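Milestone 3.1: sequence recovery, worked example.
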């Protein structure tokens, strides 16, 4: 992937039309060159937070790829006639096996930042048992990431010393996006991915949704049924806060469908 892929607007944001294969091809190309890059994703939760935490936007503005991580948003885009296809929606669980296969085959140095103390270490052990050639560094996400923080400086030093080809940031929204926005410029290398609770899945702290559920678009329902107290607001309340964005989409769709006025046409009534 030498050029940025085609993109489409949805709910007021721009998305790159790229699926798992394209995402990994992009990462492999940048890693082979020793270049840094940034891949982030949007879903209804991130859009809800974006309107309430402006600092998040810095991560999306700096991103090389902004991917779609929401089946409801995918269906909304298709309903509006936007050029989204099923493969344009993906998340870590969709490309994890291919990713770790590549990491092992290409000798990628992968650093994971996030999770509670001990969780990332457990995830690393399980991943290396499955992919023995994977080189994985980890650091938990419990540190003071405020500007000028000594702890944050130490985290950056650990990442720099590891010299990652890939940096996975999994501290949940909006913390991971805010950290990326504040620190991306200080990173000298590595393809950065925001991946949420991915290593909680790898460590077994949270059960990973079966692949068939993800393929059918019901990952959100699986998470809601597993943890209704925490997820009810995210999936049943927050989407209604995006009504204004959705109405903007509808207005744009109606404008594009309206037939053009003939040249010389006037909306004023003809004089008798």
């Amino acid at each position: 992937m030498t050029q940025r892929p085609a993109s489409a607007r949805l709910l007021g944001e721009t998305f790159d039309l790229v699926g798992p294969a394209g995402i990994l091809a992009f990462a492999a190309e940048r890693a082979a060159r020793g270049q840094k890059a940034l891949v982030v994703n949007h879903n209804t939760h991130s859009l809800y937070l974006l309107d309430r935490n402006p600092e998040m936007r810095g991560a999306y503005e700096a991103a090389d790829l902004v991917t779609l991580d929401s089946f409801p948003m995918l269906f909304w885009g298709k309903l509006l006639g936007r050029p989204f296809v099923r493969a344009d929606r993906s998340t870590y669980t969709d490309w994890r096996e291919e990713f770790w296969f590549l990491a092992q085959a290409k000798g990628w140095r992968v650093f994971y930042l996030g999770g509670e103390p001990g969780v990332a270490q457990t995830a690393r052990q399980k991943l290396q048992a499955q992919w023995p050639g994977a080189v994985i560094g980890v650091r938990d996400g419990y540190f003071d990431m405020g500007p000028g923080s000594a702890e944050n400086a130490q985290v950056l030093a650990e990442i720099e010393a590891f010299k990652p080809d890939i940096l996975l940031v999994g501290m949940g929204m909006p913390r991971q996006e805010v950290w990326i926005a504040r620190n991306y410029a200080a990173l000298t290398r590595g393809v950065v991915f925001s991946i949420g609770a991915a290593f909680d899945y790898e460590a077994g702290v949270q059960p990973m949704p079966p692949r068939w559920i993800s393929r059918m678009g019901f990952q959100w329902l699986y998470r809601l049924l597993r943890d209704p107290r925490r997820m009810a607001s995210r999936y049943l309340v927050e989407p209604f806060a995006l009504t204004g964005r959705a109405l903007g989409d509808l207005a744009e769709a109606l404008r594009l469908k309206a037939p053009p006025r003939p040249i010389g046409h006037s909306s004023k009534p003809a004089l008798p």
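The two ends are 63 Å apart (CA to CA). The CA atoms of residues 123 and 203 lie 4 Å apart.
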